[in-house]
Write a structure and sequence with these properties.
8 strands, 272 residues
Length: 272
């Protein structure tokens, strides 16, 4: 059975981005609890911004789980990526992500690799960039094993990366890691709407490999405020046997509370 989640951003510099709740951990957890979400997903500047003891208390007080933690601030704040042509920069990127893995691992939550995957170009060929990406994912997936959580790889649309843009391309990447890898695919429905010929077919391409889903409509607004066919999408999510988090990473439109409310109502409509 799937579980509902809503995103909380602690990164003020990213305000206006596709995260629903922005007023801190406690306010976000209270809203999530009041509306009936099962979990929250947290995007922070890094582990130093999150007091893990405070987070543990908030999750307990509001009867929530931690669905996942984001690593994007490693790119936004530090300009780090796993495909940098500088080995020292790649090492810094891995160390930053390992700290995020540790932070989320305490709560049974995987860390998401999105923008920190970087891109190819200039002196870096696509083939070499994908090798660096695979190497990084394999190492980080192995590191996450000690916390009994997966490492979560999110392919992005063509305007945000030129490495993997579809579920099939992500699956091909994971298939180069060997049978014992600990990496799963994050299927973000906004990115899929841009890149897949058919979102439902794309989800089928990831059967058995998808470990997280970002629940969002075609225009990056909450589900129900765009044009995607969620009858078909939800049916396919059930068809492939997905039972993880359905997490709302969407714009806070028209406001935070309204966006969260729209999301949980849509979640209950399609998965309740």
């Amino acid at each position: 059975m799937t579980k509902s989640s809503v995103t909380i951003s602690l990164v003020e510099a990213a305000r206006g981005g596709p995260f629903i709740l922005w007023e801190g951990l406690e306010a976000g957890c209270k809203t999530a609890k009041d509306l009936g979400f099962d979990a929250v997903e947290v995007f922070s500047l890094g582990p130093e911004q999150v007091d893990s003891d405070e987070l543990e208390k908030l999750l307990g007080d509001y009867e929530l789980s931690l669905a996942a933690v984001g690593t994007g601030a490693g790119m936004v704040k530090h300009g780090l990526s796993l495909t940098s042509t500088c080995s020292e920069e790649r090492a810094k990127a891995k160390e930053f992500i390992k700290q995020i893995i540790e932070m989320g691992g305490r709560f049974g939550a995987g860390a998401i690799l999105g923008s920190m995957q970087g891109r190819w170009g200039g002196e870096l060929s696509k083939e070499d960039a994908l090798k660096l990406l695979a190497e990084g994912c394999a190492e980080l997936g192995e590191y996450a094993k000690q916390f009994n959580v997966p490492f979560i790889y999110e392919h992005l649309n063509r305007y945000e990366t030129n490495l993997c843009n579809t579920v099939a391309e992500s699956a091909a990447l994971l298939n180069t890691l060997g049978d014992d890898h600990n990496v799963v695919i994050l299927a973000d429905l906004f990115h899929m709407n841009i890149e897949e010929v058919d979102v439902a077919s794309g989800l089928r391409d990831g059967q058995g490999l998808i470990g997280h889903i970002h629940f969002v409509d075609s225009n990056r607004k909450p589900v129900g405020l765009g044009h995607m066919d969620f009858d078909a999408i939800s049916a396919t999510i059930k068809e492939i046997g997905y039972d993880g988090y359905i997490s709302a990473e969407a714009l806070p439109y028209p406001g935070e509370y309204e966006a969260a409310k729209q999301t949980i109502e849509s979640y209950n409509k399609y998965f309740g």
